[in-house]
Amino acid sequence: MSGVTDKTLEKHATSFGKLTFLDISNCLHITCRGLEILGNNCKSLTSLKRNMPPLDWEEAEKPLPAKVNNGEAMVIADTMAALCHLELCYGRFGDLGFDALVTKCENLIHLDILGAVCVQLDGDLLDKCERLAEFRGPWDDSYSEDDGDDNEAAVLSSDSDSDQ
Bias regions of kind Acidic residues — which residues (predicted)? Predict the structure, then answer.
């Protein structure tokens, strides 16, 4: 976890003008206010990673409306419309925030919302995702063979070699 806060961002905001890529994953002390500061000062930003930790069990047990917070998604949609690549894994936003993102971020080609369980993709939202070159939805548990552990493959290979 990071110690970066909204105040830190506010203090250094004028130096963010030329940033094109930003990873603020797991920065739990950055709120909508901090995202707005970034959006208003990072006009060259084309790639944002804002992946958060999964919901804990107590939070996950709450009814869906109690978990939804569209604030961050709305701020990103309103202030970072030039984004091409966006990762919001385990975000707390729902369909309203998701719709704002895919509607206002017209340059978006890659969107990853794995674990964003409040997004239901109701109505025409799934259709809007079809214009994206890459979309990873809330429940997408697929992975490529490249995602596997190379050490496991090496162990399997050496085990089969010793059988010969």
Answer: 142-152
Instruction: List the CATH number of the domain containing 18.
Output: 3.80.10.10
Return all residues near 58 (Cβ < 8 A) that are at least 6 apart: none
pLDDT tens digits, residue range 54-67?
Answer: 877 666 666 566 67
Classify residue 1: in a domain, yes or no.
no
3 state DSSP class of 21: strand
Taking a C-beta distance cutoff of 8 angstroms, is the pair 103, 111 a contact?
Answer: no
Cβ(119)–Cβ(136) below 8 Å:
no
Query: Which distant-in-sequence residues (6+ apart) come within 8 Å of 67 by Cβ?
Result: 55, 59, 60, 92, 117, 118
Domain that includes residue 154, residue range: 6-162
**Model confidence pLDDT, tens digit, residues 74-106:** 999 999 999 999 999 999 999 999 999 999 999
Hey, what are 145's tokens? 């063979």
